């Protein structure tokens, strides 16, 4: 809004009533207070559409931003409800379209790649490349490992988590809830059993990424 918005008397009155406080970035510091995940998204987007990955003469329509946007809006933020049998997570898509974004099964591609098929395959490769790198980066942000050794609290029963898999299709996150803990002699949990819609999975805690609850956001 800024000064241009204040030219309108009604808008100025609304700003004053709402007690809106504007905070501006210092000159030449566009990274200041900039969300870290947005920087990561731009980084992987630039790498996924690098000229080395495709022929620029065949990408006149761009790298299909809606597909990339769908990946970004599918990331789990927190549990949708405290129900232990509910494996759904709140995502940015809930605020945009009122629910999660679903990925339809892709048809098998023919052996030959010409014309529109070649273009479609290129878009799919770009999206898959972006998804593989960005989703891995997001998971690592959920489970930061500090430089210095320190004790972290154990995972708890009923925690909403993401289970890491070596390869997943875009927009698909393996969500579940912890239903069993395996304690070591020092009372540290290093293995957990997670109940998912695909069944029960037993994983090391290094492959488990807990989602923040509603009180932590």
UniProtKB/TrEMBL annotation:
Name of encoding gene: pol_272
Name of this chain's protein: Pro-Pol polyprotein
Domain of life: Eukaryota
InterPro entries given in the database record: DUF5641 (IPR040676)
Domain DUF5641: 118-211
């Amino acid at each position: 809004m800024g000064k241009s918005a204040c030219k309108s008397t009604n808008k100025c009155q609304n700003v004053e009533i709402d007690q809106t406080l504007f905070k501006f970035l210092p000159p030449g510091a566009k990274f200041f207070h900039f969300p870290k995940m947005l920087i990561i998204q731009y980084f992987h987007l630039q790498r996924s559409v690098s000229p080395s990955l495709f022929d620029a003469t065949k990408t006149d329509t761009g790298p299909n931003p809606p597909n990339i946007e769908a990946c970004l809006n599918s990331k789990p933020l927190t549990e949708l409800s405290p129900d232990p049998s509910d494996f759904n997570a709140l995502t940015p898509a809930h605020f945009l379209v009122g629910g999660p974004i679903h990925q339809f099964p892709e048809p098998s591609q023919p052996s030959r790649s010409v014309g529109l098929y070649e273009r479609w395959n290129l878009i799919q490769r770009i999206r898959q490349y972006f998804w593989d790198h960005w989703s891995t980066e997001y998971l690592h942000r959920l489970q930061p490992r500090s430089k210095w050794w320190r004790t972290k609290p154990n995972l708890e029963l009923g925690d909403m988590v993401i289970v890491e898999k070596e390869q997943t299709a875009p927009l698909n996150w393996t969500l579940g809830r912890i239903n069993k803990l395996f304690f070591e002699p020092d009372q540290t949990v290093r293995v957990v059993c997670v109940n998912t819609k695909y069944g029960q999975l037993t994983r090391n805690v290094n492959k488990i990424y807990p989602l923040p609850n509603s009180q932590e956001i």
